[in-house]
Amino acid sequence: MDTHLKQAFHRIVKPLVRLHRKGIAVGELNQMFKQIYVEVSEEALLATGERPTTSRIAIATGLTRKEVAQLRLIGAEGGHVPTPSYNRGARVMTGWLHDAEFLNAVGQPANLPLHGETGSFAALVSRYSGDMPYRAMFQEMERVGAVQLVDASGHAQLMGAGYIPHADEAEKLSILGTDVAALIQTIDHNVLTQARSQLYFQRKVCYDNLPEAALPAFKTMVDQDGMALLIKFNTWLATQDGGSHPLADGMGRMRAGVGIYYFEEAVAEQPAEKIEDSP
Questions:
Q1: Bridge partners of residue 2, in order along the sequence
Q2: SS3 of residue 267 by DSSP
Q3: What order of strands is seen across the sheet that includes strand 155-158?
Q4: Where are the domains of the chain?
Q5: What is the pLDDT at residue 12?
């Protein structure tokens, strides 16, 4: 393996391996990697119009034909992965933020009655979450702090502009999978793309000699400015979404977005350089 690729792979996998505290042992992780190698090899062969036989996949991955056959069988029996509930919640929240039917006189998300054919939480969920019962969606959004009942008449109030399942570990791990995958796919695209006009936007700002006292102010800046930028992007994307605007121009179905994340970590002290006099 190329040294640079090996170093990059080490940096990517190390944070994931820390999840061993969630009960993922090295043997289970190894099996997962084998499964992924088989899936990626099969997809690559199909993309080039070649037949993804067990023998071809075994050659590409270094696994035995028996292992490949077993892993392909497991993959075929895995079934469809259901849409995470946070995706549904995010769609409901987007509709609440931008659909005129669910806004008040000044263009802000209205407090909605739970029931009703139009202008209600039930109507909102029906429009943006398909077959999800509105009571189940309300309970889910209430559990993560995205919505609350505000009066005796039972009106629902939106509590923020972003759907983040703060208290749900399973949902957080689901977001880990989708968000990290999106970032790696962007980097992979940019590594393989030669034309500058076809590159995806990928930028980062980072300093490694900051005092701890500077971090709270910077974190607040990221929270405020980052959220404002995401809301701006979300407002535009909502006007193009086929689920919200079935008559929107264009063909096909694409997924696109932008992610913003904050990070911090302690930097190990470098030992002082020792200077010795020459004899």
A1: none
A2: coil
A3: 112-113, 155-158, 147-149
A4: 1-79, 85-158, 203-267
A5: 82
Is the separation of the CB atoms in 102 and 124 below 8 Å? yes
pLDDT in tens, 19-45: 666 666 777 778 888 999 999 999 999
Neighbours of 202 (CB within 10 A): 10
Measured from the Cβ of residue 152, the count of other Cβ atoms closer than 10 Å reads: 6
Region at 262 (left for phi over 0; alpha for psi -120 to 50; beta for the rest): beta
With contact defined as beta carbons under 8 Å apart, do 151 and 159 qualify? no
Q: Are 156 and 114 in contact (CB under 8 A)?
A: yes
Nearest CA to 89 among 180, 161, 178?
161
Q: How does 139-150 read in b/e, with b if 16+ C-beta sit within 10 Å?
A: ebbeebebbeee
Q: Which residue has the tokens 């940096």?
A: 11
pLDDT at 79 over 50: no
Minimal CA–CA distance to 144: which of 124, 116, 120, 174? 174
Closest to 162 (Cα-Cα) out of 58, 60, 241, 232:
232
Q: Which of 53-67, 128-142, 147-161, 167-181 has the highest mean pLDDT?
A: 53-67
Helices (H), the chain: 3-17, 26-47, 54-61, 65-77, 85-98, 121-129, 134-143, 169-192, 215-240
- Which burial class, exposed, middle or buried, applies to 92 when counting CB atoms under 10 A from its CB (0-12, 13-18, 19+)? buried
As a whole number of angstroms, the distance between CA 42 and CA 57 comes to 7
